[in-house]
Write a structure and sequence with these properties.
The complex is a heterotrimer.
Chain A lengths: L1 H17 L3 H26 L2 H28 L12 H25 L4 H20 L4 H22 L4 H21 L3 H4 L1
Helix pairs in contact in A: 1-2, 1-5, 2-3, 2-6, 3-7, 4-5, 5-6, 6-7
Chain B lengths: L1 H28 L9 H11 L10 H18 L17 H21 L3 H32 L4 H10 L6 H18 L18 H4 L6 H25 L8 H25 L8 H22 L2
Chain C lengths: L1 H15 L11 H6 L2 H9 L4 E4 L3 E3 L1 H21 L2 H4 L4 H23 L3 H20 L4 H36 L6 H6 L7 H19 L5 H10 L2 H29 L1 H24 L4 H22 L2 H25 L16 H18 L6 H18 L4 H31 L10 H18 L1 H9 L2
Antiparallel strand pairs in C: 1-2
Helix pairs in contact in C: 1-6, 3-4, 4-6, 4-12, 4-15, 4-19, 6-7, 6-12, 7-8, 7-12, 8-10, 8-11, 10-12, 11-14, 12-13, 12-14, 12-15, 13-14, 13-18, 14-15, 15-16, 15-17, 15-19, 15-20, 16-19, 17-18
The chains are: A mainly alpha, B mainly alpha, C mainly alpha.
Chain lengths: 197, 306, 471
């Protein structure tokens, strides 16, 4: 079941790379966070780790529910363009994404032998990090850059969970707090967007 | 052996029923009075009685084309994984052969479209080539990935292995291959995100455009070929990705198998109702996702063992 | 309790930012000076002092960096009083600026005192996010674009640091358990880490993230453009306080990395910093306005600090760091005055000042400009001497003496390019161009005087003794 959820995590991220509609992008991000939260809940329950269950619940509420809704409201308020224009053409993206996957799996090979958790999960979280980076750089609009940043945080959370069996609770709380602050700053930053696009 | 032949006969017989079910479901979901699912048989019977009119520019290709469109698909029917435990099956046919045979059928369909010298045929053939160019590699990769996970390169043997023991530690790869295969099912059978099987408008035709010139017996043959193609894909999906229940008693196993086929038809109908047809130049986006997922499935299995 | 005392000035600023009376802000510099009391207490308390369990621990290095950052904070608070007279800024934006400055200060105090890698990261991220808005306070299209640029690249850099932290934690967790997040525990058990490759990978990633934040290769112009597009106090805060926290993080990570595998550390950091200094030296040669010039020079000095620290001259690195953290904010604050007649008026920028304030300003700025290129008796002069000496000393015992001497020669050539350019700029400021009157206000002059006093204190023997004892 854990493998399935991690598979869904990566699947939603890759689909988010190819989508061209803003609301769809937010939906894929929400599904991504949903699978992450469910994964944290499952792992926490099986390892009797209350901290991980708590962070799973917070992930579900915040990242799968509140943040996509807030982003949708922001995009409506600032009338962001809903069509997402890719910078690299689809033909090259089809070749680039598998190339990144192979490259990161190759990079993650030596690491996965040294880590206590499941090797595949570590490799998938590292490749999710790179794919989130690609999402940030690939499109011209603002929204994919924001979602890419959020997806990077998701990938780091997954890495922390699978590679180390959960980061200390304080760090998790701090990361959530910083994410919230990032949303506030994004709101303030967008205040000029209405003039530009 | 008798179970094997029975399965093939069954699949052949319910092929029009499946397509009819999809159509009826769509109409019901859209609050229209649904067509009877048996309409496919009635259409075939009607077409067999009609006379054939060929265009002046038609050559021998139009006369033998329809047979050549149906024949490879009928051959593929013989190579599918077994539906019930104990049935005989062909174990050595791999992904390349399957894809190649289906591509042969598509090739003759394209020739058929071009041969009538009508512009619609030309449009349909070029669009079909465009879509097939992206869908074929993805299909080879997907079926190859699943065969490797099941431990044997022959699709029949792979299906039998999966029915016996499903490797749950490769769930992620299976998920990716499943997503990719479903997208290919939609693409190769001309279903809504890729092609609209119900309209005859220039903007939205691919498959229909190639067979616009046909009538009578050739049309019946080509429509049957479309139905058989859908049954092939649905049965591959059912045996490779939903491989449970094959060790029941053979009547029950066969019934369960047919039930899975109808389940696939239901899902396709739901997807068709909820999605809009993509612009032709956006189809590569969708098929790009299929290719990437097929590739991802293969390397997730091979490199990581997940 | 100490934490409450330390965050008091920032809290006062936060509260004052909600008051609509501009005069309330006049007393902010006084409340900021109050931060020196807890910092002085830190100095006289036996170290290491556990301020909050294992998470915030004050040792010698911490206290020094905190003192430097606090002085910079006081200086910037002073200079902020006259921001409205040099640039156009609305009242609401001015108040928001103070609010985010307060958040920034708290985040960095937490970061500097952190012993726990996670707490360090949280403080740094909070500071990064608050600076984004401070950049945008300047309502121009360029500032808007640069604020987004900063947000994105800053987010990537911080995520790289988190990635590195996770890998380091994963590598040390089998040995230390949850304590693997603490710097002192890592240092104590560095030899026992089961997979050094994982640690080194984590260290390399975290260092790359920190270097990108400080503007090293390939992000040199990113930082220069950001500082150009924002108001001058933001640039002062960057180079004074934010870079202090980042370089402190680098100091801590590299101390552990040195215990794990020293040759790899030295090779990696040397190549990176030399490449950066190479690129930055030529960029400085071509800089045509003050802000870009100073931010590029800041990158060069940070690279030198990293180089000295890793090469064995830890005392030199700390001295250089302290001097730079006083000089660079001072120079940035003075650009508020220097650029009051337009941006690209380098020639004649130091001419035409009248009155005692004007002459004091010219004297101080001239001093700072020449001090930053390591003319004696600037602390930078001593730090570079000691630094190069320590590097060659460290290399004598290894096989790489020739490589080290080659690196030193290359560095000296690049530094001389920068030296030439700065002297040329100083002379152009003093002796060329037209004499235009530029007003100088008491508040910013007080800030400059404060920084000059700090610099003088750094050269005294007691300060140097203290720095030698650290590490």
């Amino acid at each position: 079941m854990v493998d399935l959820l991690i598979g869904i995590f990566l699947a939603t991220l890759i689909t988010a790379l190819f989508t061209t509609r803003l609301y769809r992008l937010l939906m894929w991000y929400s599904l991504n966070s949903l699978s992450l939260g469910l994964l944290a809940l499952l792992l926490g329950r099986s390892q009797h780790d209350g901290a991980m269950v708590a962070s799973g619940v917070i992930t579900l509420l915040l990242k799968a529910g509140a943040i996509p809704w807030i982003l949708k409201r922001l995009s409506q308020r600032f009338a962001l363009e809903r069509r997402i224009v890719p910078n690299i053409r689809i033909q090259y993206a089809i070749m680039l994404v598998p190339a990144i996957l192979v490259f990161t799996f190759y990079l993650a090979e030596p690491i996965s032998h040294m880590v206590s958790g499941n090797a595949n999960d570590v490799a998938i979280s590292i490749s999710s990090l790179f794919l989130a980076l690609l999402l940030m750089m690939e499109h011209r609009n603002i929204a994919p850059k924001i979602v890419g940043f959020l997806a990077m945080e998701n990938a780091l959370f997954l890495l922390g969970t699978t590679a180390t069996g959960g980061m200390p609770m304080l760090v998790e709380l701090g990361i959530f707090f910083d994410l919230l602050m990032a949303i506030v700053v994004i709101n303030l930053l967008l205040r000029r967007e209405e003039v530009r696009r | 052996m008798s179970l094997y032949l029975l399965t093939i006969l069954l699949l052949l017989l319910i092929a029009p029923l499946l397509l009819g079910t999809i159509k009826a479901l769509k109409m019901w979901l859209l609050f229209k009075r649904p067509l009877s699912p048996l309409q496919g048989y009635r259409d075939a019977a009607k077409l067999l009685r009609k006379e054939t009119v060929l265009s002046e520019e038609a050559s021998v290709v139009t006369r033998i084309g329809p047979f050549l469109v149906l024949a490879p698909l009928l051959i593929v029917l013989f190579f599918l994984p077994p539906a019930a435990r104990g049935a005989w099956y062909v174990s050595f046919v791999d992904a390349f052969t399957l894809t190649g045979l289906m591509a042969l059928s598509t090739f003759f369909l394209m020739l058929l479209g071009l041969d009538g010298a009508s512009s619609f045929g030309g449009i349909g053939a070029s669009r079909e080539a465009f879509i097939a160019a992206l869908a074929e590699p993805a299909m080879v990769l997907t079926i190859f990935a699943v065969s490797m996970m099941a431990g044997d390169l022959g699709v029949g043997q792979a299906g039998a292995n999966l029915a016996r023991s499903f490797p749950t530690n490769h769930m992620a790869s299976f998920l990716f291959a499943g997503i990719s295969f479903f997208l290919l099912l939609l693409a190769e059978n001309g279903r809504i995100p890729v092609d609209n099987p119900e309209t005859h408008l220039e903007l939205t035709m691919v498959h229909e455009a190639m067979i616009l010139e046909l009538g009578g017996v050739p049309l019946a043959l080509v429509e049957t070929a479309a139905a058989v193609k859908f049954v092939i894909f649905a049965s591959l999906f059912a045996s490779l990705f939903l491989p449970f229940g094959a060790d029941l008693a053979w009547p029950l196993a066969l019934a369960l198998f047919v039930g899975k086929l109808f389940l696939v038809a239901l899902v396709v109908a739901l997807v068709e109702v909820h999605t809009a047809k993509l612009r032709l130049f956006k189809v590569p986006n969708l098929l790009g996702i299929a290719i990437v997922f097929a590739f991802l499935s293969l390397i997730t299995f091979y490199v990581l063992g997940a | 309790m100490m934490i409450a005392l330390l965050s008091l000035p920032a809290l006062a600023m936060f509260v004052a930012s909600f008051l609509h009376t501009p005069r309330a802000r006049r007393f902010l510099p006084l409340s900021s000076v109050a931060i020196l009391i807890p910092v002085a207490m830190l100095f006289f308390h036996p170290k290491p002092w556990r301020l909050w369990g294992d998470y915030l621990v004050a040792d010698d290095l911490d206290s020094y960096v905190l003192l430097v950052a606090s002085v910079v904070g006081i200086g910037v608070t002073l200079a902020l009083l006259t921001l409205g007279r040099h640039v156009e800024i609305g009242e609401a934006a001015y108040r928001r600026f103070y609010r985010f400055f307060a958040l920034f200060w708290i985040g960095l105090i937490v970061s500097i005192l952190a012993n726990h890698m996670g707490i360090y990261w949280i403080g740094l991220e909070m500071a990064t996010l608050s600076t984004v808005y401070m950049i945008k306070t300047h309502h121009s299209a360029a500032a808007h674009r640069e604020a987004w640029n900063y947000m994105i690249v800053g987010a990537i850099a911080i995520s790289l640091v988190l990635f590195g932290i996770i890998l380091i934690y994963a590598s040390a967790k089998p040995v230390l358990g949850e304590k693997a997040m603490l710097f002192d525990a890592l240092l104590a058990q560095a030899h026992a880490i089961p997979s050094p490759f994982l640690f080194e990978m984590g260290f390399a990633l975290a260092t790359m993230g920190m270097f990108v934040k400080m503007g090293f290769f390939p992000m040199n112009l990113w930082l220069a453009n950001i500082e150009r597009a924002s108001y001058y106090p933001v640039a002062a805060l960057f180079s004074g306080i934010l870079e202090s926290a980042v370089i402190l993080g680098f100091f801590r990570f590299s101390t552990v990395a040195r215990a794990v595998n020293e040759p790899h550390l030295v090779g990696f950091v040397f190549v990176y910093t030399l490449l950066t200094i190479f690129v930055v030296a030529f960029l400085i040669y071509r800089a045509k306005d003050f802000m870009r010039l100073f931010s590029l020079s800041g990158i060069e000095h940070m690279a030198l600090i990293a180089l000295f620290w890793v090469g064995g001259g830890t005392f030199a690195a700390l001295l250089h760091f302290g001097a730079h953290a006083f000089l660079k904010p001072a120079l940035f604050l003075s650009t508020g005055v220097l650029e009051s007649r337009g941006r690209y008026h380098i020639a004649g920028a130091l001419r035409g000042y009248r009155g005692f304030r004007g002459r004091l300003f010219v004297f101080l700025v001239g001093l700072f400009l020449l001090a930053i290129v390591s003319l004696p008796p600037s602390p930078m002069f001593f730090s570079e001497l000691y630094g190069f000496g320590a590097m060659v000393d460290a290399a004598e015992s290894s096989h790489h003496l020739l490589a080290m001497i080659g690196a030193t020669l290359l560095l000296l050539i690049l530094l001389s390019v920068i030296f030439y350019r700065f002297v040329a700029i100083y002379q152009s400021m003093r002796y060329e161009g037209e004499a235009e009157e530029r007003p100088v206000y008491a508040a910013e002059l007080a800030a400059l005087a404060l920084f000059a006093a700090g610099l003088l204190l750094l050269i005294t023997p007691t300060a140097m003794e203290f720095l030698r004892r650290i590490v």
